[in-house]
């Protein structure tokens, strides 16, 4: 009995045909209920199978695109790139993949999320699977996964991380680099200047009689002056120059590939511009000046800190000589 029933399942052609039909129905229903696009093309890139996902997400009549070339049915597809991808998959008989990070989408399918994204189209991960059929040779099955949410939250997360990284380098009050980042930059510029035998100069600057300004006009006025003066100085620099708040009312500028003459010229310009700036607080005119110390890297320094010490000494000299001026020192 057992033997005859097992024989009937595999050897009875009618039963086998019924089984195959049932399996096809199951496969079709599963494919049509999946929240993944399934599109199968033959070796001439004609569409052989297309599931309901693509019907739901496009206004195309799926029955009309079966048998048509994929690049005619979906003209938005990158033909050169996708042809190479499909051919590679068929020839090597190995799967391929394309993530939304490489290409945000292949198919222009509008996304249905109530979230705002940078693109009007659904972000997609696409997998390319080689399918071997007995009669018609190799096909490729393209699986289209909707990853709009992943893309949206990943992009938001990356932006937050970028903002945090920036914030960790920036002084909260003046928006110029903070001391930690500035000092790390100097360390790098020092190493570069030594390695490539390039010149490197430093300007240390400090607001004059700032305590008096705070005492006379209040701390808020002092803060406003720090913001305005650093914005003014930033506007006078080249993009390669690295401007930072060294602490309190002391600032510092790294000048890569700049010798002492270039650094002195810039320092004079900064000094004059700050002194000439028309700063007011509560309708009162403020006379703000700065003192600057300039130093150039020479063969004598053995580390970047010695360059800071040199520029700091020059700054002290400028203060001592009467403020609102530039002084320089060489080792
Ligand atoms: N408003 C404000 N004041 C600050 C800030 N950081 C430091 N200060 C003040 O800056 C003043 C610096 O005073 P001093 O070091 O005596 O220097 P100075 O009065 O500028 O005198 P010289 O440098 O010799 O010209 C102090 O009163 C600090 O409280 C800040 O972020 N905001």
Number of continuous helical runs: 12
| Multimerization status | single chain
Rounded to the nearest angstrom, the radius of gyration is 35 Å
> What is the H-and-E element order?
HHEEHHHHEEEHHEHHEEHEEEHE
Tally of separate domains: 3
Can you tag this structure with a few keywords?
alpha+beta; 5-stranded antiparallel β-sheet; 5-stranded mixed β-sheet; 47% helix; 21% strand; elongated; PAS-like_dom_sf
Structure commentary:
The chain is an alpha+beta fold. It is built from 12 helices and 12 strands. The strands form 3 sheets. It has a 5-stranded antiparallel beta sheet. Strand 4 and strand 5 form a beta hairpin. The protein starts with a helix and ends with a strand. The structure holds guanosine-5'-triphosphate. Guanosine-5'-triphosphate binds at residues 173, 206-212, 214, 219, 222-223, 226, 248-249, 319, 323. The site of guanosine-5'-triphosphate has 17 residues, from strand 6, helix 9 and helix 10.
In short:
The protein is an alpha+beta fold. The protein is built from twelve helices and twelve strands. It has three domains: 1-33; 36-154, 2-Layer Sandwich (Beta-Lactamase); 168-329, Alpha-Beta Plaits.
List the helices and strands and how they pair.
Elements: H1 2-11, H2 13-33, E1 36-41, E2 47-50, H3 52-57, H4 62-65, H5 70-73, H6 79-92, E3 96-98, E4 124-133, E5 137-146, H7 148-167, H8 179-196, E6 200-207, H9 210-217, H10 219-235, E7 242-247, E8 250-256, H11 260-276, E9 279-281, E10 284-286, E11 290-296, H12 304-320, E12 326-329
Parallel strand pairs: 11-12
Antiparallel strand pairs: 1-2, 1-5, 3-4, 4-5, 6-8, 6-11, 7-8, 9-10
Helix pairs in contact: 9-10
Bound molecules: guanosine-5'-triphosphate.
Guanosine-5'-triphosphate (GTP) binds at residues 173, 206-212, 214, 219, 222-223, 226, 248-249, 319, 323.
């Amino acid at each position: 009995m057992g033997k005859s029933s097992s024989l009937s399942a595999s050897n009875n052609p009618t039963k086998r045909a019924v089984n195959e039909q049932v399996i096809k129905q199951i496969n079709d229903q599963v494919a049509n209920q999946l929240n993944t696009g399934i599109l199968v093309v033959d070796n001439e890139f004609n569409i052989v199978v297309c599931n309901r996902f693509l019907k739901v997400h496009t206004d195309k009549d799926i029955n009309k695109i079966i048998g048509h070339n994929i690049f005619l049915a979906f003209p938005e597809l990158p033909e050169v790139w996708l042809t190479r991808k499909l051919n590679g998959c068929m020839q090597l008989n190995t799967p391929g993949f394309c993530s939304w990070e490489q290409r945000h989408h292949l198919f222009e399918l509008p996304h249905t999320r109530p979230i705002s994204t940078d693109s009007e189209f659904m972000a997609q991960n696409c997998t390319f699977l080689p399918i071997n059929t007995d009669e018609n040779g190799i096909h490729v099955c393209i699986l289209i996964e909707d990853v709009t949410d992943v893309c949206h939250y990943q992009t938001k997360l990356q932006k937050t991380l970028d903002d945090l990284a920036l914030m960790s380098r920036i002084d909260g009050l003046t928006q110029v680099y903070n001391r930690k980042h500035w000092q790390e930059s100097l360390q790098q510029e020092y190493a570069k200047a030594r390695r490539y035998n390039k010149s490197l100069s430093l300007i240390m600057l400090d607001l004059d009689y700032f305590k008096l300004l705070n005492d006379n006009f209040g701390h808020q006025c002092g803060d406003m002056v720090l913001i305005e003066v650093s914005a003014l100085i930033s506007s006078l620099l080249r993009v390669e120059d690295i401007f930072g708040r060294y602490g309190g009312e002391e600032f510092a500028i790294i000048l890569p590939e700049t010798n002492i003459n270039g650094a002195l010229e810039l320092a004079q310009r900064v000094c004059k511009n700050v002194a000439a700036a028309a700063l007011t607080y509560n309708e009162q005119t403020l006379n703000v000046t700065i003192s600057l110390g300039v130093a150039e890297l020479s063969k004598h320094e053995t580390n970047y800190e010695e360059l800071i010490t040199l520029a700091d000494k020059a700054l002290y000299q400028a203060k001592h000589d009467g403020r609102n001026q530039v002084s320089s020192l060489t080792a």
